[in-house]
Amino acid sequence: MTAPLSTADIREKFLQFFESKGHLRLPSHSTVAPDPTTLFTVAGMQPFKEQFMGAPASFPGYGDSKRVTTAQKCLRIGDIENVGRTLRHCSLLEMLGNFSFGDYFKREALTWAWEFLTSPEWMGLDKSRLYATIYQDDEEAFQIWTGENGLSADRILRFGADENFWPADAPKEGPNGPCGPCSEIFYDRGPAYGDDTWAEYADTRESARFLEIWNCVFPQYDRQEPLPDGTPVLKDLPFKNIDTGMGLERIATVVQDVYDFYSNDVFAPIVAKVAELSGQPYEGPQNVSHRVVAEHIRSVSMVIADGTALSNTGRGYTARKILRRASRHAYLLGLREPALHTLVPIVVEKMGGAYPELRENAARVEAAVKAEEERFLKTLEGGIQRLGGLLGTMEKGTTLSGEDAFVLYDTYGFPVDLTKEIAEEYGVTVDEAGYAESLEKAQETARAGSKYGKSELFGGNQSAFDGLSPTPFVGYDELDTQAEVLAVVGAGERLDALAAGSEATVVLSRTPFYGEGGGEVGDTGRLEWTGPDGQGGTAVVRDTKKTPQGVFLHDVMVEAGELREGTAVRAVVSGERQATERHHTATHLLHAALRAVLGDGVRQAGSLVAPDRLRFDFSHGAALSATEIASVETLVGRWVSANFPVSWQEMPIADARAAGATALFGEKYGDTVRVVTVGGNVSYEGQAVASMELCGGAHVNRTGDIGAFVILSDENVAAGVRRIEALAGEAATAWLRGRLDSAARVAGLLNTNPEGLEGRVSGLQAGLKAAEKEAVALRRQLAEAQMGGGGAAAQTRDLGGFQVAALKLSGVEAGELRGAADKLLDTSGADIVVLATDKGLVVKATKAAVGRGAHAGQLIGKLAAAGGGKGGGRPDMAQAGITDPAAALAALDTAF
What pTM did the predictor assign? Predict the structure, then answer.
């Protein structure tokens, strides 16, 4: 018996099939979105937005073709709460796609899909188990399915625009722009998955038996504003496109004849490893956690390999949320030590062949996952303490608010199931409805940032810039040039004129202003002009950006005169550009120096280049030592001292890579790239170190122009990612002068000179430490004196069946209370001791008392509430902050 095709086999066969149909095979784009409309790549068509809108079908480094096929990794987190809870939800999807940009259309798309699915050479599926849906008015698709593919009419369902149009309901609801009908292909998995029929699917539209495996979309219309009576307006596009997508996880489930995604050859080994590590079999209610861990480690591995660093913002925040969700479920399975990172090699083994970035970055992915696991487990322990504090103040039979439960989940990553389990020990229930409401609000926010309809992918109305060609940038060589105003745009509309005191976006016929990009801030400066009437005018350029199409947008405020389209202006870049150039070239040298000192594993993860500073984020797992920082500064200083020339040239990207130019991972480059080269090497430990990077930014002419260079800080910003802040030129000189002046002032205050500061401070620290030690001893003696030596001064009484000793101490800090409570518990014979000071409260109980039901954490909650504070803790020991110790101690009478 022939073994079923593996997921890798299916992926490769799909790509080979469409290559045989004249398609150009392209690699998957990064999970980092190719445009700013979404955080992540969410659809197979997203990297081809420009081609769908009419741009040339040219793909640098691969060739030109109006037919393209890909296996695209996509990340969708809009319904992440369903991942693991159902058998068909994934956050990471592999979308197999074939695309046509004005070439073939419906006939080819549908007949090729049928051929690939049914031909024994390819998937070899049983034709009698295939079904299709079409748009209700799409007779062309119906004829292709029945006449050419031989599908009987009773196996075809017609649906309206809510089901078989993309975007859904576009004719009536919009958005305006490209849209069209679609045809979906379903596979009947048989009665083992349900006893429903295909005819019943027309009513239910839900089925475990009939699985959708392929969606063929036919973008053939341009949806425009409806007529006044609401009639939809659909005009034919100048050329028709094809956008198809088949979920690899879905087709693998069918071809391998397994029950669900988690039983296919990619997921099953990960699930088995989770069961092995946790000792929990993959059966029963806990199998939700097995699925969450297996699915999420696959997602996070791919996202980190693509260069996203775990952080508290943007993509990094989403990636961290996914990983922490996996960590929570690992915790529910009983895993108390980092374990998820041990699953990464399985992901690499199963998917690294198709996505080589996984293999290349496997060590970095493992390190990042492990570091985040360690951090999260500590956070989880913090959640346990926080929950204990909340529950300790509550009576049995009361309810923990849903908002509190959600804060524990959102802040500490504390799963509500674990909250419920711990609350039960206190006799407290959890407001699950309130928790669900808070969670839904958070999920709505997440969904808003993870849409993947055509309106989000193609963006809003850009008609104000229609007809404008890419702006020629002359700012590498000219900082003062003549230009013509091509457009003045305000509030999304073209303006005739801009009066003094007004602000708008201005497009010039040519510009010396650098548009923000590559980490470099946009240029500022001035516009000056003389109008036809001889009246002059001036405006401030406050910032410069550029569109993906290369149109430079100048944020302008008119100071005097009137600025109109067609006005000839003098465009002058401010003097800040030179400072920016110094910091930009210094960033390149810093990058090269870090790779030399720390190793080739250093990879740029982000940067900011501004007139007053530079910031450089890079992959590295540990803080830099003082020696490493000094070595990096020394290397940069050698380049500066050598005063090497800095040059740039444009060349084919293949030549640039062959020459060893450093490129940013995930960055999109054209056939021709700009390469910035420092014309000389420096030496580090006998090795020559060079700087050559792909870069479109502005730079100094010679390294000596950089001047002074100093690293201000090295800090951790995410798991496996460090951030260096540094200064160059006059900014560095000013900073160094400020530090020297500050050192001199401090030395004067301590009656020494800057050279003697270290010795003087060491002496003061030693004296302070001795004084603190003496103070602690005195406070301990004071506490013992107030307790009457052996605790005789404490009032011991019977409360709730326990002997309780309580005492207020004066002049004792909260830190000494725990030691005093230990001594009192040992010497008084009491079951429970309560000690208070002006701002603190401690409760301790013996093991025997705890065994009989005593709970210091619950008791202190009641006492602290009476004393104007709050606190919590374990059954044997608890501590709280208070403002009224007398009231806290008085509450003992009613606390039991």
Answer: 0.60
